[in-house]
Write a structure and sequence with these properties.
Blueprint: E1 2-7, E2 10-14, H1 17-25, H2 44-50, H3 52-55, H4 58-67, H5 74-95, H6 97-102, H7 106-114, H8 120-153, H9 171-189, H10 191-221, H11 224-228, H12 242-256, H13 258-262, H14 265-268, H15 274-307, H16 314-319, H17 324-357, H18 364-377, H19 380-383, H20 387-415, H21 422-425, H22 443-457, H23 466-470, H24 472-497
Antiparallel strand pairs: 1-2
Helix pairs in contact: 2-15, 5-12, 5-15, 7-20, 8-9, 8-17, 8-18, 8-20, 9-17, 9-18, 10-15, 10-17, 17-18, 20-22, 20-24, 22-24
Amino acid sequence: MSKKQHSAAEDIVTVDNKTLQRFKDRGYNEDVLPKTADKRNMNKKNYFTLWMGAVHNIPNYTAVGGFLFLGLSPINVILAIIISSIVVSAFMVYNGRAGSKYGIPFAMQLRSTYGVVGSKLPGFLRGCIAAIAWFGLQTYTGALALVILLGKLWPGFLDLGGDFSFFGIDMPGLIAFSLLWVVNVLIALGGGGSLNKFTAVLNPLIYLVFGGMTIWAINVAGGIGNILSYTATGSEVVNHPAMIGYLIIISSIIAVWAAPGSSVSDFTQNATSTKDQAIGQTASLVVAYLIFAFSSVFILIGGSLHFGVQEWNVLNIVNKWDSLPAIIIAVLVLLMTTISTNSTSNIIPAAYQLSALFPKKINYKRGVWIASIIGFLIMPWKLMENPDSIFIFLNTIGALLGPVAGVMLAQYYIVDKQQIDLDALYMEKGKNQEKNPYKGINIEAYIATIVALVASLIGQFVPALSLMSDLSWFIGAGLGFGLYALLKLRKTNTREEK
């Protein structure tokens, strides 16, 4: 193995061809091997455009509507979102350092934390269950926007199929879902290169469209003052103290990034340097959320004032516009952001994880097909017929990823001290690995994860502790990090005493 120096404080570790071949001979496929220097092709610009579309999507706009019911003023909601972007970017950058330094994907970083056997469960939950479920749900959410678009262009489209129903979805919905599914699959099959090109096109469109929508909202609301002085009304409003409201918003936003943040090494493994991914991701998330913070609050409140109804679904606001060209452009960009989110946060991580779980039978492209087909077969429109059960399920998966992230960070920074033995990590199967630090199951990691998970979920079952569920990611990640570090420190001290 060799090191490529970028500065006195910055370096990446690359493997030579001999080492890479040795890993291949041990049965590891191309998708989980460390990335060589020639494949590290993502620079600051690529990372800057990477997450832009993942911020400006339909569910995120709807979430902001919920934030306005926390009893905070619009300006406080905006500030809380901006602060959240700094927290999210720090999480993404620091958890992505193992990937950018060693060129390893999430599956192998997870193995370095939980052990070869122990990594399978958290990897399956993040890369398969959560990712595939969210892929289906995001595709269906995008399909709802596509139905609006096609209905505006061809009103007869909404009447296709008459009373036809395919397990609860009508013909227009099924056509829209299938079309969007195909586009998502094609983008994912193209991998990082295809995604880079897609986000490069999407990035300027986001500035233009959401900037234009924000200007429209300010005009129809009668000025910025009217928007910032707006107060949400209704029985749904919960008047939290300002500090609690801020923490709930920050926790909610970082929970959205719990899955992509845990598996961010799937993207940082391609970094030309750790510095590039750090600068690029920070700029991407902070700039994206800066725009999003103002545009989401202004558009939702401006639209509500203009149409005289508290409307927190951005699609409903767009659908009420009089201008067909404006509707077409806005919906197309919202569709593109949904596709970008699905690629970066769902389908690509799912494909990599399937490849890691079954390295001899599944490569990245087969993983894309398998994950996509399952995402269709679970019929997400059926899941959304009972929103309480599906979101309890997904929130449970998300709550698990907070502890997982905390344990991963503690392993890399506290236990490993940012040093990973690649030869031990890519161990030879069938050989005695008694002294290999990554063998079997890391019991301490599982103990810390389970305890932190229980703590982050307890508020769902004990009403008096409901605030703990509202702050579940912080509690799970913080407790997972601290407890795991203490368990490892105690184990090290015990060995030294012996």
